[in-house]
Amino acid sequence: MASIGKLNRHQARTAYLFITPTMLLFLAFTIVPVVMALYLSFTNYDVVSRMDFVGIDNYKRLIDDALFWQTFKNVCYYAVIFIPLNILISLLLALLLNFKRFGVKLFRTMNYLPTLTSAVAAATVWIWLLHPEFGLINNLLSYFGVIGPAWLAQTETAMFSIIMVTLWQSVGSNMVIYIAGLQGVPDYLYESAKLDGATALDRFRYITWPQLRPTTFLVSTMSIIGALQLFDQAFVLTQGGPGNVTKTPVYLIYQQGFNQLQMGYASAQAFILAIAILIFSFINMRATKSEESIV
Amino acid sequence: MTTYSVQKALTTVLFYVVTITISVAMFLPFFWSLITSFKPSDDIFSMPIKWIPTKLTLEHYRSAFTTVPFGLYFWNSFVLAAAGVLANLFFGSISGYAFAKLNFRLNKPLFRILLAAMMIPGIVTMIPSFYVLKHFPLIGGNDLLGAGGNGFLNSFWGIILPGASGSFAVFFMRQFFLTLPSDMMEMARIEGCKEFRIFWNIYLPLTKPALATLSIFTFQAGWNSFLWPMIILNDPEKATIQMGLQAFSYNHQTDFGPMMAGALIAVLPILVMFLLLQKYFVQGIAFSGVKG
Question: Cys-Cys crosslink for B263: which of A121, B68, B147, B211, Cβ 3.0 to 4.6 Å?
């Protein structure tokens, strides 16, 4: 018995030694920052000199900050269109490319390639694709006799362009996750349903979709967290314009904090955004009613 | 019988028409930027579209590297991404091993906290992390209390350290170590093997597929990151390829040839890596996405 106790103690010592670097980094760059985020949001920290406690002044100021709420509205508009489309398109792609047919691997790769590109590189390419006169999109539209808009420069189409670019970039990886999910659905469910005379649509509605719930939960949660933090594409494609219609909360926080050095105020904005992300994730959790936890 | 086979042939045709249309549409932006980057400047703005350039030229690639120090940006990004990979592989696997294979009282609670942290959106820690890096004690001219200097700002460490041991790396490696049997460990202990050697010489070599997948994920994340390097690095000599590319599209609004050349160069390393390690990559996504 004594030697087992000794072995356990030895094991525990080794284990603590092994996780120490990770835990120190985790403490310095996650735990401390999370606690500090809350504290900073009650100060007027400006990098240079000040860091006085100002109570809820930042939050009071937020309530009347029209630009802040505008960025929120922008990103909600983006999320409401982007997330369902993202799920729908990647699921349809997965259903299509889950067939075992000649060339399917190649098609999967072609659909997956956009996810490998960086947001900046993708946006750069799309600036050219969406060029009002010489861009590919408007040229293709002109074959059908449609005169395309100045995509990135018009208030009506700017956000739509960003949705298009981010969809192009993200459906591939979600498709792969859905394909993996589809392959986890047991075959006997389909076979017995076929025996009962269920149509393809029935089989999707009563077997595939419910079985994919954990996958949908994963995909939608990641989409929500990602969508509400939209920045890179908005920064490169439109610089938040025209007329702030594509300015997002992260963009505003970046400008407020790192250009105007109002870090205390920016922290308050970040905190409100984080709470919003939490609320949306929670609603999503209830909506997809996933019984098993994913992480 | 014949109606059945006709129906089957029709679905096959439909399948290929739909898939090929979608796949080509998804691939079109790559193709379009590729031909743009090789077109002579006159062809770029010719109407109607010239799908096949009159002649191929490398002029845009040359100007991409001469108008901005693109080679330097490429190197900076490479160093940052490679450092991120090495750090995550080592710290992620050693911690993952401890959480999967060793008994200690705080195993479960600490792991749960790490996992919960994966849900925290990056924007929350952005400003405080900046503060922590700026006021890191005894670094970059700072005193013991973290005052006076600039800490890790404007240094590559400011990028490397916060991402050196991500929760995801630990989680991912732990899941993989869990699938390995524990009796090898006990055998080695009886033989008198030291704990670090058990990890390093026995278990780590068995996780090669997981390490390969994690390398690709980490490299891609490091190579593609934009906002954080933009915040930390002010010195133009230290700019990354994403920052360079962005500046490029902003300052040279009409030079679409060099812009497309630059964008393709920025995507190339990831693309090559993906094509080489495709098998691991898809496995890894399936693994991390579903098994959870």
Answer: A121
Q: Is the pTM of this model over 0.80?
A: yes
Under-50 pLDDT residues of chain A: 1, 293-295
pLDDT at position B226 is 95
Angle at A198 between CA A193 and CA A203, to 5 degrees: 70
Contacts of B236 (CB under 8 A, 6+ apart): none
Q: Tell me what pLDDT residue A227 has.
A: 95
- Point out the residue among A29, A180, A250 whose CB comes nearest to the CB of B286: A180
* Exposure of B187 in the CB half-sphere (CA atoms within 13 A): 6
| CB of A44 closer than 8 Å to CB of A34 | no
The 3-class SS string of A45-84 reads CCCCCCCCECCCHHHHHHHCCHHHHHHHHHHHHHHHHHHH
> What is d(CA B94, CA A174) in angstroms, rounded to the nearest whole number?
30
**B192 band by pLDDT with thresholds 50, 70 and 90:** confident
Measured CA to CA, the distance from residue A17 to residue B94 in angstroms comes to 10
**Which residues in chain B touch residue A109, judged by CB atoms under 8 angstroms apart?**
278
pLDDT tens sequence across A147-178 = 999 999 999 999 999 999 999 999 999 999 99
Chain-chain contact of A113 with B27 (C-beta, under 8 angstroms) = yes
Angle at which helices A66-96 and B2-38 pack, to 10 degrees? 130
Residue B283 reports pLDDT greater than 80 = no
Residue B291 pLDDT: 40
Q: Which of residues 212-231 of A touch B (CB under 8 A)?
A: 214-215, 218, 225, 228-229, 231
For residues B54-81, b (16+ Cβ closer than 10 Å) or e, as one string? eeebebbbebbbeebebebbbebbbbbb
ipTM for this model: 0.89
* DSSP assigned state of B68: S
Query: Taking Cα atoms as reference points, which of A26, A51, A49 lies closest to residue A40?
Result: A51
Site of tokens 């019988």: B1
